[in-house]
Each structure stands twice: as structure tokens, then as C-alpha cells.
Amino acid sequence: MSFTSDEVNFLVYRYLQESGFYHAAYVFGIESHISQSNINGALVPPAALLSIIQKGLHYTEAEISIGEDGSERMIDSLSLIDAVMPDVVASRQHNPQQKPVVKTEIQSTNGDEAGPTGETMEVDNSVEIPVNKATTLRGHESEVFICAWNPTTDLLASGSGDSTARIWNMSDNTSANQLVLRHCIQKGGTEVPSNKDVTSLDWNCDGTLLATGSYDGYARIWTTEGRLASTLGQHKGPIFALKWNKKGNYILSAGVDKTTIIWDASSGHCTQQFAFHSAPALDVDWQTNNSFASCSTDQCIHVCKLGQDRPIKSFQGHTNEVNAIKWDPQGNLLASCSDDMTLKIWSMRQDTCVHDLQAHNKEIYTIKWSPTGPGTSNPNMNLILASASFDSTVRLWDVERGACIHTLTKHTEPVYSVAFSPDGKFLASGSFDKCVHIWSTQSGQLVHSYKGTGGIFEVCWNSNGNKVGASASDGSVFVLDLRK
Predict the structure, then answer these.
(1) What is the pLDDT of residues 76-125, one digit of tens each?
(2) DSSP readout, 391-402?
(3) Distance CA 147, CA 109 (A)
(4) Every domain of the chain and the residues it spans
(5) How far apart are CA 243 and CA 213, in angstroms?
(6) What is the second-level CATH architecture of the domain 131-481?
(7) Fold: same for 5-94 and 131-481
């Protein structure tokens, strides 16, 4: 019996579809070229992958239960993970008093934080944020990928896999009331829920409008009262990122259709569509009110300008998909991070990168610049860049010198999000270990810590710098009140 990777891909694709993971199936189908395989899908029965796995389990079970001398051993029924570790199962049968080989000791990178139980995350009491300082907001029915504070008031927006965004009013300390922004599409002349994830959101600079991007291919603009002001439809397929420019007259979006679009916010019309990437565009960031950078799974970064029909600059150097890009507060330097485990700093003055920062040992998911200017901790200090990686660490970089200043190692799972406080003195980080940590950017010390109930996708600070919002994989959103 033999099989091809095309056949495996087809069964995985079908499994994703049957499990309701439609957008994962869609993207996987494109990347694995399902349409080009010559498999007749009509002949493949439902749950084919699961039945093959089930048969494989029975076979593996039989194999382990027969000893080398032909004698039969009693074995418990196998789990799928057991089946890929037959040696471990066999050794368990030899030494029944031994527990399954599961590492409970979580090794911290510093080597000295893990206590006798191996629970690294027990932070000393002065650091632990007390429960009465945390407000959990419940309402979403699926994971909450993103959250963002309104820049002028304590309204927190969140976007979820339940095809809604929500606006939570945290300005008074009574129980937060929520506005539900339902993402619907027209079907047969009626509005029906799109059933697609809301994956991106951004407030305009005066906090009067919220833009959302969804896997249903539409961007939408909402008022602070939760009214749908306009629907922006031009992308073919999921939108991965969107941003307002500073002036608030344009919105920029990036999509799976390999294009980026500048939208006129007042009319909702597409002003210009840029089709320079050869694969899905993953992130965008404005440099000025009419120029921006975009990055893609095609490993390229393009800088484009409204009215120009070619990129005004292209940066190449990453060797895997580029996950995020950010201009520094002045718009002089562009930082990018990638699955190639590097972050790079680019300047419009040269073609090659200014710095190639290599220290993480897994994919880097996102990056943020420290704020600069009056009222921040570094009005004239060197710029700091923070990077969050799947290697469970956050790093702070002095970009002037191209050097890593601090490695923050208290997380034990991939770190999905980092955010600087408005004054630049603190950095919040959120990880799939369910913890939000708040660090001093000066010393690199952990100053506050809170453990939520789900893996953390996003952390954000309110404009006063006294509250941190976080959104999680279990559908919860929570707010940490850092006021003394």
C-alpha cells in the first residue's frame, strides 16, 4: 500500500470542511493546490480520514500487544498520541507503576523560577494582580482574536470567531454594557449572519468610528453606538488586517486575494487597489496619510503610495512569510518580523535592511515600537522595538545599536501580542499560557501578572495608561485596572 502527499492533503482538506473549519479548509486548499489534484471527491466517503486513523490505531494496538516472544500483553485502549509513541506505551506495560511520560516540570528559560511543582507562573504576591482588579466580560460565543481601546474614551472593542464585534463601555465601574455588532451578509434578499471570523479592527484617531475586517471579505465602519455606517466590499476572500490613516479620511486593508486596498472612509468606495503581492497580504501599516507598507506570505514588503501604479520601494530579504510590519512613530524606519525567526529594520534610503536581528528561535508573530515624544519616557531616548515569538519569549531591542536589551522569559507558551503603555514605561504581553504579564521597559523586571481563563490573543492599553484589555481563546475579554 502506498499513498501520495496529494491524497493526504485531500483527506485533511475534507476533514477541515466536515469539521466546519471552512476558512482553514479554504486557505489549506489553495496552498496545497487541491484543485489541481486528480482525485474524484464525489467518490470519497465522509469521515474518510478519521476511519483510516481508527484502523491505524487498531493495527498499532495489535502490534504493541503482541510481545517479541509471541505472548499477548494486556494494553489499555490507545489514544492517538499513544499510537505515535509505541515505545513509550510498551515501556509503560513493562513498568506499570510508572506514570505516562508527560513532562510536568515547565522549565523556565532562567532556570531558577520553576518551583517544586514545576508551576513557573506562580508569581509572588506583590506582582499578582488581585481578582478584584480584573473585570471579565462575557458574551462572545467563540474565540476573541482582537481587542482595541477607543483613543478618547474607555470603550473597548473586541472581535471574535462568532461573527460579531462588541463594544464594551468601561468608563464607569458598574457592570460593562455591551453593544453587539453583528456581521451579516445578504442572502436571498435577507440579512443572515456571515458565520465568519472578525479578524481585525481599528478605531479612527478621534474615536468616533470603528472599522472591522472579516473573513467574509467585507470591511465595515461602525459608529460608537454600534450602528453600521458603511460596508466596504471589493476584496475576494478574507481580510487579514486593516488600519485608519491619522487624518481619518482613508482606511487600508490587506486580504487573502493578494491585494491591498485604500478606501475612502466617507463614501465607502475603493480609491485604489494594489495587486503587487504574489500571495496573501498579511499586514499593512501607514507611513504617512497617503503612503503605506504591506507584507505577505510571498516574503516581500512593498511600500506604495496613493496615485502611484507601482510600489515606490520594495524590500526583500526575509526567507519565509512576513507576519507583521510597523513604521516607527516618525515614519522613518520600518520593522518587519517573519516565520524565518528574524526581525529586520528597513529604511527608504537603502535597499538592504539596516539591521537583521536574529535571536528568537521560533516564528516571530508581532512587533511594536515604543511611543516617543512629549509625555513618554523617551522624548529623546533611543527607539525601542518589542518582538513577540512562538519561542515563548519577548525581546526588547535598542534599534539604534541593533542590540537586544532585555529578554523577557516568564511565559511558557507562544506569545501572540505585546503593547507599550502610552508613556512607554511598561510593556504588556499576552501568551497562550493564559497569562498577561506587565514589564518595566527600563529594567526588564516583571511588575504585574494576571492569569486568565483562555490563551491570550491580544493585549492593549487604554489612552490613560491605567487599564489593560485582553482577549482570549475561550471567548472571554478582560480588563485589568492598574490604578493604585
Answers:
(1) 667 777 777 766 666 655 544 333 322 222 233 333 333 333 333 344 55
(2) TS-EEEEETTTT
(3) 29
(4) 5-94, 131-481
(5) 10
(6) 7 Propeller (2.130)
(7) no
